[in-house]
Design a protein that fits this description.
With 377 residues, this protein is an alpha/beta fold. It is built from 7 helices and 17 strands. It folds into 3 domains: 195 residues, 3-Layer(aba) Sandwich (Rossmann fold); 54 residues, Adenine nucleotide alpha hydrolases-like domains (SH3 type barrels, Roll), CATH 2.30.30; 82 residues, Translation factors (Elongation Factor Tu (Ef-tu), domain 3, Beta Barrel), CATH 2.40.30.10. The strands form 4 sheets. Strands 12-15-14-13-16-17 form a 6-stranded antiparallel beta barrel. The protein has a 5-stranded parallel sheet with strand order 3-2-1-4-7, sandwiched between helices. A 4-stranded mixed sheet has the order 9-8-11-10, with no helix packed on it. A hairpin with a 7-residue loop joins strand 13 and strand 14.
């Protein structure tokens, strides 16, 4: 009997390393592939939030990339599997960094990990795997893949709620899901580290990567200015009626819901409630202006369900660390996903993802948030 060949995205971290070991034990012919996406690194293995995280210098970041490759090589050597380093730097630049930069310049707050997962970690990795004769790909994400009674594939929330990564994976296609294995969906992080110790992996205690990590010095605005070779233009803070309140330092430095770092002395807490890129204006308002029951999204990816012509009861999340709220969702005549929450939610931020879940914890569908309607409460 021929073993099924599988490509594992081997990052050098504990999750992907344990994934490769588990699959080998299950009888797969495992190939470790490390994706080289530096010097303007890199896709995150965990999370997918807004704030960039990294090191204080490009040199340190590049050094970390080299260490990750070396860690992955040692893991492959210990497990007795082949290991390849594949240059995805140009693909990553085109598909992730360009998207990230354009979104901020358009006044949105993007989630690059969502794009990276579909367009790099899966799309490019599957293409490379096919060239190697692999039928499947695997990653160290905390999620479960299920095939439902309707024949569709979906992601089910991980057994460990604190590590669940289905939100950042909602955009995977049916074809990608049908050829993917995620062994860690049934494990907690503590169990995975214990397995790594038992296996004898040197990376057993290696810290998790965090959120956006291709901006090593944590300064995403400066990164965008360096990348585009254009300085961010100052403009006006305005209220909802257009009255000028002060001067901002460039729209790429702001996101809906932001309170800190505004430099406005108005005698009370105020928040960014909108960004108008054409006018180069940042709209300032009160906390209640951020609350809404209705959130709109486009670029819909259907997973467990594909018929939202009638309202469907769901649990919906508007950001990675949002616990989720009960809602009704439908697709309107303009092809937009309309989600009406039972209770108001705060700061539905354009560019982030709206992800819908069925009552049993499967991803039903998701899309990119356009904004909120005016029925604020």
């Amino acid at each position: 009997m021929n073993k099924k060949k599988i490509v594992v995205g081997l990052s050098g971290g504990v999750d992907s390393s344990v994934t490769a070991c588990l699959l080998k034990e299950q009888g797969y012919e495992v190939i470790g592939v490390t994706m080289q996406i530096w010097p303007q690194d890199g896709c995150c293995e965990e999370g997918g939030g807004r704030q960039p995280v990294g090191n204080d210098s490009r040199g340190d970041a590049a050094g970390q990339a080299d260490k990750a490759i070396e860690d992955a090589r040692r893991v492959a050597q210990l497990l007795g599997i082949p290991h390849y380093v594949v240059d995805f730097r140009e693909i990553f630049r085109e598909r992730v960094i360009d998207y990230f930069v354009k979104s901020y310049r358009d006044g949105k707050t993007p989630n690059p990990c969502v794009v990276c997962n579909r367009r790099v970690k899966w799309e490019a990795l599957m293409e490379k795997g096919a060239q190697m004769g692999a039928q499947y790909v695997a990653t160290g994400h905390y999620a479960r893949i299920v095939q439902l009674a309707n024949g569709r594939y979906s992601l089910k929330q991980a057994a460990s709620a604190s590590k669940d990564q289905t939100y950042a994976l909602y955009n995977l296609t049916q074809e990608q899901l049908s050829r993917t294995i995620m062994p860690l969906g049934e494990y907690t992080k503590e169990e995975v580290r214990q397995l790594a110790v038992q296996i004898g992996l040197a990376v057993a205690d290696k810290p998790d990567s965090q959120e956006i990590c291709f901006i090593p010095d944590k300064d995403y605005a400066s990164f965008i200015e360096r990348y585009t070779k254009e300085a961010s233009k100052p403009g006006h803070y305005v209220d909802a009626g257009g009255r000028i309140l002060g001067e901002h330092r460039g729209i790429i430095r702001y996101t809906v819901g932001q309170r800190k770092g505004l430099g406005l002395a108005v005698g009370r807490p105020v928040f960014v409630t909108g960004i108008r890129p054409r006018e180069n204006e940042v709209v300032i308002g009160e906390a209640e202006d951020l609350m809404t029951r209705t959130v709109l999204a486009d670029r819909i990816n259907y997973m467990a369900l594909e018929d939202f012509s009638q309202p469907v009861p769901v649990t919906a999340k508007i950001r990675y660390n949002h616990r989720g709220e009960q809602a009704m969702a439908r697709v309107d005549a303009d092809g937009r996903l309309v989600c009406i929450f039972d209770k108001p939610v705060r700061a539905a931020t354009p560019g982030q993802s709206l992800v819908l879940y069925t009552p049993d914890g499967c991803v039903a569908a998701g899309g990119v948030i356009l904004g909120q309607t005016e029925d604020r409460m």
